[in-house]
Amino acid sequence: MNWNAFSSRGRSARGPLAHRVVQAGWRWIQRRGAVTAEQPGGHRFGAIGHGTKLTFPQGTVFGEPWIRLGAHCIIGEQVTLTAGLMPDLDLGPEPILTIGDGVVIGRGSHVIADTTVRVGSDVYMGPYVYITSTNHSYDDPHEPIGKQWPRMEPVEIGAGCWIGTGAVILPGARIGRNVVVAAGAVVRGDVPDHAVVAGAPARVVRTWDAAAGWQPPLRTPAPRPIPSDITPEQLLALAEWEEEGA
């Protein structure tokens, strides 16, 4: 039977090969486009720790000299990191945006530091989290809100927090250590250590102390801890085995 490149047979033969070529090419671009301490690309951060990676493609990034990233951080795709109201400003001798060691920032998140924003170590964020130290003001009812000078307040997020998908952290927020911020929560003001906050505006829905434990009590049993003698190599092998069996 005669056939050509435009026949269904030709398309079916070429399709898988083209797919593999595109996928391999995209993975190559992702590797080459990632920003690390060893491969900074066009970005010149105030500091970028060992093992930290900004995955490709990046979101908007400017004010890099006033951004300090700790070690072993994972910055997901399309994450915006900015210091200052706009590019090419001189922001002085001190960092504006500081991110600790071991921080994970999920895909599509924004960290907007027009004034000081500090994120402690081992903070994990889901996708599309929005953190900002600036808010619009609307004091003058006759002037467009976008033309009024914004209000700025520092933001602090303590070590060990989990910030759920779509959460918003507003100017002036001071979040303690090991806090859970529920998905979609809108946080402002002070949040104590070892708390769970949810809602818009966010409120504390669960707290912990050494004497009483979690109040109200947790409804689910604690997960079994990973055995202390297991190695990272064994964990990786287990993950691969589970993927093959899926």
UniProtKB/TrEMBL annotation:
UniProt keyword list: Acyltransferase, Transferase
Broad EC category: transferase
Domain of life of the organism encoding this protein: Bacteria
Keyword Acyltransferase carried by entry: yes
EC number: 2.3.1.-
Name of the protein in its database record: Acyltransferase
Organism: Streptomyces citrinus
